[in-house]
# Entry
Amino acid sequence: MPELPEVETVVRGLRSTLEGKKIRQFVFLSPHLQQKQPAMALRPQDYRGKRLREIRRRGKMIIFNFEGGCGLLIHLKMTGQLYLADPKQPADKHTHARMTFAGFRPELRFRDIRKFGFVSCLREPDIWQKVNSALGPEPLSVGWPEFWDLIKKHGKKRIKGWLLDQKLVAGIGNIYSDEILFRAGVRPDRPAGSLSRAEARKVFRSIRAVLRRAIELKGSSVSDFVDSTGQKGRFQTEHRVYDREGQPCRRCRLALIQRKKIAGRSSFFCPTCQK
DNA sequence: AGCCCATCCTGTCCGC
DNA sequence: TGCGGACAGGATGGGC
# Structure
C-alpha cells in the first residue's frame, strides 16, 4: 500500500494541519511498538509539551522533528495508517499509538493491522543517520547522470528488483515499479545493465511521470490506504498493469497482461508492449 | 553480487 | 457455511 506517493500524500496532509502544534500527550496503545524501539530510543513521555517543528518524508519513511532535537521515525510498511480522528470515535484493536495536541481537537492515530510498521522515538541525528544509511537518492530529485551510473553499477540486478531496492532509489514499491516499467516499455525481468541508454532514460522519465501523477491523485487505494483525513486515493483507476493478470492490455488492446514472480514479488507486464 | 526463501502478522479470498 | 491454504503493498537476514 504505502509507497512514495501514498507516504507523500499522508505527509502533506499532516504537515498542513499539525506543524507548529504542541504535544499534549503521546502514548503507545500496544506493547509491540515499545518492543520494536531501538536501544537509544527516547520514551513517549519525553515528547509531552514539545512543539512539532516539521514533518518530512524520505523514501517511504516519515520523520517528525520536535523542538529540543527529538523526533519520530515512522514506517507504515504494508498496512500502516497515520490519520487524524475525532477522539470520540473509539480506536479499534489495530490502533497502536495516539498523539494529542494542545488547542486542537483531532488526535493523530497510528493504525497497523499486520504490525509490520514501526514508530521509533529517536533524536534527530540518530534519525538522520539511520535514514541516510538505509536509503538511496529520492527518485523525484535524483539527476540523470547519477541514475545512469547506478544502473551501470548494479547492472546484474533485474530492473524490477533494482527499482525495489531502497538503497539504490528510495520510495518505489511493487505497484509503482510495475507501472513505471510498463510506461517505459521495459520487461521487469531484464537485467538493469542490459538496458540501452535510451531505455534507461525512458525508465528515468517514467519514474517521474508515474510518481507525480500518483501524488496528484493522492496515491493508490488498492486495499485499505487512506490519507491523513481518512480519504482514499484515486490513482488505482489509472493502473495499467498492476493486478490485471489475464486482462487485455490497455495500450495494445491485444495481448493479455502476464504475471510472473520476480524479486520475490508478483510482477505484472504486457508481453507485447514491454521489450 | 544477487537470487530465492522464510519471516514478522492479520485479514481476505478461493476452492473444496 | 465452514475450513485450510495461498496470498497481500515492505524489508531483512540466511543460505546458496
Remarks:
- The longest helix of chain A spans residues 197-216.
